From TrEMBL:
This is Beta/gamma crystallin 'Greek key' domain-containing protein. SMART domains: XTALbg. Pfam families: Crystall. GO terms for molecular function: structural constituent of eye lens. Keywords: Eye lens protein, Repeat. Belongs to the beta/gamma-crystallin family. Residues 3-41, 42-84, 131-173 form the Beta/gamma crystallin 'Greek key' domain. Crystallins are the dominant structural components of the vertebrate eye lens. GO terms for biological process: lens development in camera-type eye; visual perception. Signal peptide: none annotated.
Amino acid sequence: MHGYIIFYEDRNFQGRHYECMSDCADMSSYMSRCHSCRVESGCFMVYDRPNYMGNQYFMRRGEYGDYMSMMGWNDCIRSCRMIPMHRGSYRMRIYERENFGGQMHECMDDCDSFMDRYHMSDCMSCHVMDGHWLMYEHPHYRGRMMYMRPGEYRSFREMGYGGTRFMSMRRIMDSWY
C-alpha cells in the first residue's frame, strides 16, 4: 500500500494544494503555508520544521480541516514522512539512560505507562529491532510524540528532545492504514 496525502494552504481544504506520495523534507518549494490536509491512504508523520525536525504529529486516513488547533501548533507543516506498512513482529528495547545505559526492557507490545509496567521514570534511549512505533511524552499516549523506525537511538536529548521524557509507546499497526 502506498501513502497519499494532500496538503492545502488554507483551513478546510481551501487554496492551493500539494499532493504527496512519499517523504518530503521541505514543503516550502511547493507551498508557502499549509493549514489543512487530507490523508487518502497510508500513514504519515508531519513536522513543523523542514528536514523532519521539530514537533511531530501522526496522521492516518482521514480529513484534517484545521489540524493546527487540533494539535496546538503555532506553525504549519513543513515536512512529512510516509510510514511504511509493517507486517510481522514488533520489538524494541528501551533504556533508562542515554547510550543504552541503566535499566533495559524489551517490549513487543504497546505500553501505556513505563512507570506502571517497568517502574521506570525515564527513557532516554532505545533500539528498535522490528516494526514502527510512536513514543509519547506522557502516559496513556498523550503529549508530544516521536516516530521510531528500526534503528538505534542513543540519545533523545541529542535528537532535540532534551527536556522531554517519554513515558508511553504504541505500535503503528496494519489496522491503522
